């Protein structure tokens, strides 16, 4: 059986949906903290098992009979290392034969403060002796297209990424990479640097919004502190607001750029064009 953690999250649901196109539902295990949120998956025949990243006993029980596991990184920044180590240890005790992990693009050399927990997790996976695949995911296009509606409402797209080129790919593209790893289409023991085929600036994103709406929405590049203050004002939690602003600042210096095209090779098709992601955002 194939299992994945965080199965009701944004990435997890896409992975389950794509897996259902290839394997029977009863061969999929959705590991979730709240089974009620996975009622729709259970209705489709997916095995739903309760386990959070902090419950070592529940994790081991949830992985009974699992051959291949996708560890989707926790969203709880600052707690990820310990949480992920719990999953790795449970996977080893349960006899999992392949562990795939969603890490961060160029984690071992990335200047992003997110990188350290990913590096620690990669090290724990390698130290465990488990056969593994590391998927180092770049930035999701949705990280920015989620701001399309506010941009349209406010007449400008805001950020702190300057002229930095960001190799964006849709969340569904990264889900397809995970499915490829889980279904034997990726090389065991390999670390994949995954990113979109085309790198864009936020000014180019703003231009695409303008093209599709027929209205002009310029990109306004702001100092980090000013951008963070705006994000705080609209209600984002402080850690996320400051994080987004600082990650943009690092993107300005190339932290989210990659031109290796490993993602499109792994999934067997080009990554989703920016125009399509903007079209979907404008529809929602």
List the helices and strands and how they pair.
Blueprint: E1 2-5, H1 10-20, E2 28-32, H2 39-43, E3 47-50, H3 56-62, E4 68-71, H4 80-94, E5 98-104, H5 115-128, E6 132-137, H6 142-145, H7 148-154, E7 157-159, H8 171-182, E8 191-194, H9 202-213, E9 219-221, H10 224-233, H11 238-251, H12 262-267, H13 274-283
Parallel strand pairs: 1-2, 1-4, 2-3, 4-5, 5-6, 6-8, 7-9
Domain NAD(P)-binding: 7-182
InterPro entries: NAD(P)-bd_dom (IPR016040), NAD(P)-bd_dom_sf (IPR036291), NmrA-type_oxidoreductase (IPR052718)
Pfam families: NAD_binding_10
**Euclidean distance between termini CA atoms:** 34 Å
* Total tally of structural domains: 2
Which structural class do the helices and strands define?
alpha/beta
CATH H level of the largest domain: which superfamily?
A: NAD(P)-binding Rossmann-like Domain
Give the C-level CATH assignment of the largest domain: Alpha Beta
- By CATH, the topology of the largest domain is Rossmann fold
Order of helices and strands: EHEHEHEHEHEHHEHEHEHHHH
- Shape annotation: globular
Please state how the strands of the largest beta sheet are arranged side by side.
3-2-1-4-5-6-8
The CATH architecture category of the largest domain equals 3-Layer(aba) Sandwich
How much of the sequence lies in strands comes to 5-15%
Radius of gyration, taken over Cα atoms and rounded to an integer in Å: 19 Å
Number of strands: 9
Mean pLDDT: 95
The biggest beta sheet reads: 7 strands, parallel
State the assembly state of the protein chains: single chain
Unreliable stretches (pLDDT < 50, length at least 5) are: none
